Amino acid sequence: MRLLLLTVSSALALHLFSETSQVQLLIYFMLKFAMEILLSESSVVTTFYFKWTTSTVAIFLAVLGLTVLPVNVIVGSYVTNLFQDRYVMFVIHLL
Questions:
Q1: What is the pLDDT of residue 75?
Q2: 3 pLDDT exceeds 60?
Q3: pLDDT greater than 80 at residue 8
Q4: CB 47: neighbour CB atoms within 10 A?
Q5: Three-state SS letters, the chain
Q6: Do the Cβ atoms of 79 and 88 come closer than 8 Å?
Q7: Which residues, at least 6 apart from 42, have a Cβ–Cβ distance to it below 8 Å?
Q8: 51's torsion region: left (phi>0), alpha (psi -120 to 50) or beta?
């Protein structure tokens, strides 16, 4: 019952956000979901397909973790400087 109430209240709260905020939340959720899948299954996939050891997978994840913030800054500043928000939202509406 508590989970149902939380789900209903979350759905009602979503309507309080503007369309642009809803799209941003959806993109954020999808990125976090994909990253969680990548990180949680990386050891299984790399061991099965590439025969990597645990220490090799740990080094790979460390390098991946160190590149997250610089890549986010570069992509964020590039997209922000290249396109205005209204054009990004227009393209999202077309999709």
A1: 75
A2: no
A3: no
A4: 14
A5: CHHHHHHHHHHHHHCCCCHHHHHHHHHHHHHHHHHHHHHHHHHHHHHHHHCCCHHHHHHHHHHHHHHHHHHHHHHHHHHHHHCCHHHHHHHHHHC
A6: yes
A7: 57, 60, 61
A8: left
Q: What would the two tokens of residue 67 be?
A: 């590149």
The neighbour count for residue 70, using CB atoms within 10 Å, is: 9
Extents of the domains making up the chain? 16-94
pLDDT of residue 12: 64
10's tokens: 């979350």
9 pLDDT exceeds 70? no
Angle of CA points 54, 55, 57, to nearest 5°:
65
Amino acid symbol at 65 = G
pLDDT digits (tens, 9 = 90+) for 13-40: 667 777 877 788 888 888 888 888 877 8
